[in-house]
Sequence to fold (417 residues):
Amino acid sequence: MGEIKRLCIVDPGFTLDSPTMKHLVYAVPFLIDAGWLVTVIAENIESALPVEFQRLEPRVKIPVIGNFDFCGRVEKTVRDFRVRYPEAVVLGTPAMPYNADVTAVHFLQHIWLREAQKVPGMDWRERAWLLIAKIEARRAAKDFRSNRHTIWLPVSESIAKDLREVVANPEKAHVLPNSYDESRFNLDAAGRLRSRKRVELNFGFKDFVFAFLCQGHHRRKGFWVAVEAIARLRKINSPYTSHFLVIGGAPSTLDRLKRTLSRQIDDWPDWIHFTGMVKCPEEYLAAADGLLFPSYFEAFCLAEIEAAALGLPLFLTPHHGSEMILDCGRNGLKIDWQTSDLSNQLRDFLAGVSPLGAIDPVSLRPKNFRPTVGRALNRSEYSSALLGFLETAYEDKAARRGHSGPGDEVKRVQLFG
Fold:
């Protein structure tokens, strides 16, 4: 029998509903086939995964207090796991837990706090989340400084650049791009789904539909920028009527957005279409003609990857991660956060005078458009790359344990875990 390799994955929600964790969820069967025994420490887990599940029941529902409580329990649970299995590789996210052997970096709170200064009109809820972000940024900063052995896996080159400025060992930061489900998000699926879904949504031949996909954090992701720009665009003479298809979002969040819209834009129900949470976002993306995503901060946004895989032109602000997928003038355009400038950019696009060229009146695709997912990975590519990093972490850890001795390893875990 071969050597047993153990992996412990730590995150509050290890499910396919989590944009940051779904890549790892998909990879679990591949890792098991490669000989790894997988334990997951979380509050929730995707059903039917063949792993050991150590559930941490939520005890406190107050956001800040609950976060502290959960983090403390994670540290204790992981410390106990490390004592039992000192050779195991622990995979987490920044400061969840401290000193993980491999850390997937899907977000940098300290960079978001910097970029948040550019975002106008935040309400009290959004500012409260910034307070939580400050607390999490402090926890992450401690993690970044504390361990020279962690292999950091940022999802984009721009996130990697900022990460290398704060971690103890910048050479151990390696880009592992986000992945997508190529069996659902592909050009064939778009062709098969498009006509039926456009009829269902009552979109006509002269309706140009800009999609926006978001589960939450609508202001950070540029929802209001897009709304104001399209509202301006609809007042300009154009060969097409612009619509805004908003995919995803919890009912309570969408209710708040609709109430605000009703105070600001009388005719919004004529051109803004909310789907709510859906099981098959690819159907709605296929009905659209482009992804409009003027976000203030991302890492490498999954919505952009999935839209690109379905062959949608991308309209992206120069946020983190956009460099991984946007080829300006070929698969999309770089856009501005200023709504007046953005509406002018969209006007030029619809008029056929942007770098993407004239729009075909039947397919509604611009002449120079060439679909690409950039550096995004499919599920198999992601799983293979992740396995390589885990094998490296396992070998590095074994080498350190061999040098220090097993007794010293337990002491190190107890001291720093």
Q: What stands out?
A: The domain at 5-178+377-416 is CATH 3.40.50.2000 (Rossmann fold). The longest helix spans residues 379-404. Residues 191 and 228 are 30 Å apart (CA to CA). The mean pLDDT is 93.
